[in-house]
Amino acid sequence: MKEWAEWFYKSKEWAQTRDAYMVAQHYLCERCGEPAKIVHHKIWLTPKNIHEQSITLCWDNLEALCQDCHNKEHHAKNVRAKRYAFTADGELIPPIQKNIFRSR
């Protein structure tokens, strides 16, 4: 949990919204049907939008997810950004920029 969001996730309003949403979804993951453990915000919370109830507490922005689907949601976006390659000596290879122009 991000430090700037801790107060929100510990709030009575979030606890009530989260619990009611999970009951409405029968505690099932909306993606795979497995037991849900997490209420995910489709529009991720940021320091700028955390005070907007239309984002933080609105059911239209919520999704019940199991741990696996939640991990895929958050980590899939980071996987592409963290690809590294190394030489045989263990030196980091800088990213190669693809040349979009063909030589004729």
From TrEMBL:
Organism per entry: Mediterraneibacter gnavus
Keyword Protein biosynthesis: no
Superkingdom to which the source organism belongs: Bacteria
CDD domains for the chain: HNHc
InterPro entries given in the database record: HNH (IPR002711), HNH_nuc (IPR003615), YppE-like_sf (IPR023351)
Record's protein name: HNH endonuclease
Keyword match Hydrolase: yes
One MF annotation (Gene Ontology) recorded for this entry: nucleic acid binding
SUPFAM superfamilies cross-referenced by the UniProt entry: YppE-like
Ranges where the HNH domain occurs: 29-75
Keywords: Endonuclease, Hydrolase, Nuclease
